[in-house]
Specification:
194 residues, alpha+beta, 6-stranded antiparallel sheet, 5 helices, 31% helix, globular, PspAB-like
């Protein structure tokens, strides 16, 4: 970063740090103790839709890699498009397999990055639920290397539970690198598993 960048207020973009995904299992313990949310076993990687043979090959590689896991229970990894034009690679595990789910998310992100699709990666999300049925997604922003909570209000179309999100932010501040700029806590309506 040069002197002119400092004067103009420009900063270097934060490099993605996929190892931040591995902090999720310990954060899940804090989350359960603090507010009673437990993993659902659902996770997904969101990216700008990509067409073509190179992406199809990458998807086949990811699918083969994750299908080779002999401990996998449930359906194979699924590719789905949402109403907003984004694609989701979805992994489902049993709720007690959060570490395996994190490995799946890391493998998908790494494969996309290695094959040149890093700029299309947006976020990864892992689903949680409390005994009352409230849903929560812990969202990892790929380009920022940070996390934020997303809590849709049950039964209310496109409404968020902002007080719950702030409570989760406070509870997980020591476990995850939380995104401090709340304007970057974008809603992920229609995210699989939420």
């Amino acid at each position: 970063m040069g002197f002119l960048d400092i004067l103009l207020g420009r900063t270097k973009p934060t490099a993605p740090d996929l190892d931040q995904l591995f902090a999720l299992p310990s954060a899940a313990i804090t989350l359960e103790a603090a507010v009673g949310f437990t993993p659902t076993g659902h996770g997904a990687v969101c990216f700008a839709t990509v067409e073509g043979g190179a992406f199809a090959q990458t998807h086949r590689e990811v699918q083969a890699l994750l299908d080779a896991d002999s401990d996998r229970e449930g359906p194979p990894v699924e590719l789905r498009r949402d109403d907003y034009g984004y694609s989701w690679l979805i992994s489902q595990r049993t709720p007690d397999q959060l570490s395996a789910l994190v490995n799946d998310l890391h493998a998908v992100n790494s494969a996309m990055e290695i094959n040149g699709f890093g700029p299309q990666l947006l976020c990864s999300v892992a689903g949680f639920v409390d005994p009352g049925g409230r849903r929560l997604g812990l969202v990892y922003l790929y380009k920022r290397g940070t996390w934020y909570p997303f809590a849709p209000v049950p039964g209310r179309r496109e409404r968020r539970d902002n007080p719950l999100e702030l409570q989760i932010k406070a509870a997980l501040g020591d476990d995850l690198r939380i995104e401090q700029d709340l304007s970057r806590w974008f809603p992920i309506w229609g995210a699989p598993g939420l």
